[in-house]
Each structure stands twice: as C-alpha cells, then as structure tokens.
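Now for a specimen:

…
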Amino acid sequence: MKQLEQTVGLVRDVTGAELLGTYLHGSAVFGRLAPASDLDVLAVTRRSLDHRRRSALVEGLLEISGCTPTVRPVELTVVVQSEVRPWRFPPTGDFLFGEWLRDELQSGGPPRPGPMPDLALLLTVALAGARPRCSAVSTTCATNRETDAPVCTGRRGPG
C-alpha cells in the first residue's frame, strides 16, 4: 500500500521525535477494505502540533489523499498521549484530516485541537487491530484498569 507508506512517512517526517507511534485501524485492519474505503491512520505524539506542523500535514495529505479509482481517501487522527492518558471525557483530538474536510482545510487553514467524543471508539478499534506502522517506536497497547479506556504507549527503540 504505497499510499499508506506515504501517509506514515509524512507523519514521521513532520512530527519527528515527538511521534510515539502510528496505527492503521478501520476496515483495512479487519480485512474489509472495499474499493471506496478510506485509509484510517492514528498517530500518537508526545506534544501538541504547532501551526507549522499542522500546515505541513494538511499540505502533504491534500496531495496523498483523494477520491479516485486509484487514490483512496485518507483519514488521519493525531492525539497527544497525555490527552488520553489518564482518560477523560470528552477527549481532545490534536489534529484531524479527512476528505469531508478538504474544502474547509483549503480555505480556513489547518485544524486546531478540539473535543473529539468518538476518540474512545477510534482508540478501541485501533487497539483491537493492533497494527503499529512506525518501526522506530516500540509500542504497548493496554486498557486502563480504572476506566476501561484504551491507552497507547510507546518508547523510542532501535530501528
């Protein structure tokens, strides 16, 4: 999946050492990737992205993502680890890109952090699939014993 590798490479290049891990989730993980399915990618970072990094992600994703017979839509969600660990509701998403936001992102600039109530579901699906995509990060996926909320952790490792 060239498009997936381009997306993960973009996230890695833009976030650098702040990246804890990237995860493929959604239909691709569960073997239900249809021709019109999007590629769902979750990135976990140490800190919130600044405006420059948000802009770079949008610019890169506008080129990678699409809705044609040969280019799938990409949905990228970025979450700061400390915003979901310890778990609190509603969780804050740091960045969101999807084709349904294309016009808004092109005219209004990069997205800002904000409440993302469906993040619990997204994290649960990502953990159920457990398909880390960033080889430079050793990841551990677990469930918070007190709240049953999913938690992604990671540390820099060799490679």
